[in-house]
Amino acid sequence: MNSVIKPFLDEHATRFELNPDDSQKFEHLVNYIALREYSSKTFDPAEASLGKGEVGLDGIGIFVNGILVSDSHGIESFFVDENGNKHVDISVSIIFTQAKTSEKFELNELSHFCTSVLDFIGDGKINETNERYIEFQKYINIF
């Protein structure tokens, strides 16, 4: 781990009470840094984490009107009011993250990241353990 980054990582891990290994703590920190400017509310970066099973992506943050949406329950309320009318002023941001602690840059890792983003945007391909994101993506594409 880079000696400049390590103190920030340790402070972040203490703040969020993280106990996983350094790579998971680093992914959490990267998700926090990458997503915080899109959020109008406090959020837990773990809600955007995909875990160890995903290739090419470490996190996906889906923000609807500045709120990180962490499960598909209630997502309809962002798009449709109680009478079934579509809301017209909707802002949706989808942020993809990939965190690496290695000292060198690997082109194939960038390729995996780009392929994973394109797969998700194109046809919703993603590890089945993260099906909640597929539901978001399908619902957002309707509008």
Which labels suit this protein?
5 helices; mainly alpha; single chain; 143 residues; three-stranded antiparallel β-sheet; globular; 41% helix
Structure, described:
The termini are far apart. A hairpin with a 2-residue loop joins strand 1 (59-64) and strand 2 (67-68). It contains five helices and three strands, in the order ααββαβαα. It has helices spanning 5-15, 22-35, 76-79, 107-123, 131-142, and strands spanning 59-64, 67-68, 92-97. It has a three-stranded antiparallel β-sheet, with helices on both faces. The chain is globular and about 55 Å long. 41% of the residues lie in helices and 10% in strands. The model has no long low-confidence stretch (mean pLDDT 81).
Low-pLDDT runs = none
Overall pLDDT score: 81
**Count of DSSP-assigned helices:** 5
Using the alpha-carbon principal axes, give the shape.
globular
Radius of gyration: 16 Å
- The total of beta strands comes to 3
Ordered list of secondary-structure elements with their pairings:
Elements: H1 5-15, H2 22-35, E1 59-64, E2 67-68, H3 76-79, E3 92-97, H4 107-123, H5 131-142
Antiparallel strand pairs: 1-2, 1-3
Describe the structure in brief.
The chain is mainly alpha-helical. Helix content is 41%, strand content 10%. The mean pLDDT is 81.
